[in-house]
Amino acid sequence: MQAIHQPLHRQKQAEQRLSQTPGPNRGRKPDFRAMLQNKEMQSALGSGLLMVIAWGTAPYFGTLSIMLYIVAYAVGGWTKAKEGIETLVKERDLDVNLLMIAASLGAAAIGYWNEGAMLIFIFALSGALESYATERSHKDISSLLALKPETALRIEDGQMNLVAIDDLEPGDLLLVKPGELIPADGVVYRGSSFINQSSITGESLPVDKVAGDEVYAGTVNGEGALYVEVTKSAEGSLFGKIIKMVEEAQAEVPDSQRFMERFEGIYARIVVGVTLLVIAGTPLLLGWTWNEAFYKAMVFLVVASPCALVSSIMPVMLSAMSSSARRGILFKGGAHMENMARTQVVAFDKTGTLTMGTPQVTDIITAENVDRAQLLAAVAAIENLSMHPLARAIVDQASKENITIQDAEHVQALTGWGIEGTVNGVVWSIGKTDVLGSMQSEEMKDSYVDDPDEHGANHVKGSSEWGDVCSRLEGEGKTVSAVMADGELVGLIAMRDTVRPQAAAAVKKLEAMGVKVAMLTGDRARSASVIARETGVSMVYADLLPGDKVKQVQALCKQYGPVLMVGDGVNDAPALAAATVGMGMGLSGSGTALEVADAVLMNDNIEEIAWVIGQARRAQRTVKQNMFFAITVILALIAGNFLQDVALPLGVVGHEGSTILVILNGLRLLR
């Protein structure tokens, strides 16, 4: 009985950990419990509670009230004061933290204890909200760390040994029990189960896995035991690459934020200078009393501080990155989200990006006296020993048609042409179509039957009509191989990389947004044009070497503006680096492409690209809204202070309230 419950218990534990990871249906609403668990939020709320109690006791217990205010100042302002002092000591610069602490202490010095405490409370609250946005983003992006497997059950010489993940090597055979985490990237060797891989790909539903299917480290096995053959080391796994990207994402900030940080120091010094000038100069120049001058200086110090301005950018970018992570799009930093918003052209690689990257058999043309199933069975028997993608396509087609694949004899490669072997005493060979020679297209009109028989086969009646058939198939963007039996041409097999199901919809959505779409490929122009017609891509650049792709990306940038390059292969890496933003394919992409890319499409769903560009544009609009609002409030409050005698409490509420509104506006993008 205990043995039955153990797998279920393990699965519940794994699913509990998985529930904390980003997924397409998780975390769309603010988690108020997590917000209250934030230490800065607890300090802010504690400070606010003490402020209310102190205000209530002030008419009856003046000394106690002041003591409570002092504690409220310490609880709410200690962290900010520490940050401000560290900036002053280490960087010899002023920041908004010191300005706020100075303003609150100044208010207390002239008897406005409650106003100073209110300033501390609201300032701490706005800081806590910004901290929550940061934590939320990092949690949505890097909570995968909690799913990092530590050990694996490796099978060696018939024995099962528990080993560390770092000790695994490609070729190792692992046993993954029901409910356990997949410890490494690999291929299912034996067994079947369903895998919850939302932590990697963002897919909301579990995916069935059988022998030959790929599995990824950090995903959760379902109810069946799996034997998995390791294909990548721990650091080379998709999971390992994600962790590295998370570290980069947490370290990088947008260019606009860097500018704001530099501006903050300069602006803070100006505010301090004007404050001192008001305190020292207005009694002499305008005849104000010292108390009046000091009061207005404190109000100015509060309302002129750039809290809202500083908070206009990062909460927005972090929220946008967080929501993108839940959709399976991982950014290496806020700067790339910022650049994504400016995208004018999306340039797709063809193979593995607009297409699946795996060829499939589309046509089998046979001589009139040749049985289609017999031909396919014989060719599959020979190709079964080859790992070439075209060979695997033929073997897969035979499996789909439930054709028994026999053992071939005397199989050998024919250098520069193809492969041959003996099946049932007949020497079969398959290779390039250059054996066809020159054919007469006029004769083809009467000789080729373009009407499939009951088995779905097309036939050629004569032996001299193959040329036009081959040309027609190649004109459709297909790769054609010639099949020979005992030296006589008996058939053609055409294969083509299949278009991704969502490719046409992805292109349509991008063009509807006003974004131009281009295809950059090293494939032949004829094949590229066929894929372009099926997907709706209007700009096609074919026969490109990796260096040519870079030049074309640069030309597109110069002609149209910022370019988003989407690719999956090693040959795409230079173009990904040259583009304004490079996006790699997470599941099918090479390690080099993922290394160079600025963002990764974890689920390979290119239809999400339009969404993420829209999200980046929404983030950019939100930043502009925030900055305009923040500047307007600051200028209005400064003018009101000197022209209309704005009270300190009103200045505190107006300025810090605008900061909170700016942060909350940014948090909307978490939805």
Characterise the protein shown here.
Among the domains are: 328-355 and 500-616, Rossmann fold (3-Layer(aba) Sandwich); 358-498, Calcium-transporting ATPase, cytoplasmic domain N. The protein is 53% helix and 18% strand. The chain is built from 25 helices and 24 strands. Strands 13-14-15-18-19-12-17-16 form an eight-stranded mixed beta sheet, with helices on both faces. Strands 10-24-23-22-11-20-21 form a seven-stranded mixed beta sheet, with helices on both faces. A six-stranded antiparallel beta sheet has the order 2-1-3-9-4-7, with no helix packed on it. The longest helix is centred in the last third of the chain and has 36 residues, at 608-643.
Features of the shown structure:
single chain; 671 residues; alpha+beta; Rossmann fold; Calcium-transporting ATPase, cytoplasmic domain N; 7-stranded mixed sheet; 53% helix; elongated; disordered N terminus; transmembrane helix; ion transport; cell membrane; transport
Topology, element by element:
Blueprint: H1 2-18, H2 32-37, H3 39-57, H4 62-90, H5 96-109, H6 113-142, E1 151-156, E2 159-164, E3 173-176, E4 186-190, E5 193-196, H7 198-201, E6 207-209, E7 214-215, E8 220-221, E9 226-230, H8 238-251, H9 255-285, H10 290-304, H11 307-310, H12 314-326, E10 329-331, H13 334-340, E11 345-349, H14 350-354, E12 355-367, H15 372-383, H16 389-400, E13 409-414, E14 418-423, E15 426-431, H17 441-447, E16 448-449, E17 458-460, H18 466-475, E18 479-485, E19 488-499, H19 503-512, E20 516-520, H20 525-535, E21 539-541, H21 546-560, E22 563-567, H22 573-578, E23 581-585, H23 591-596, E24 599-601, H24 608-643, H25 648-667
Parallel strand pairs: 11-20, 11-22, 12-17, 20-21, 22-23, 23-24
Antiparallel strand pairs: 1-2, 1-3, 3-9, 4-7, 4-9, 5-6, 5-8, 10-24, 12-19, 13-14, 14-15, 15-18, 16-17, 18-19
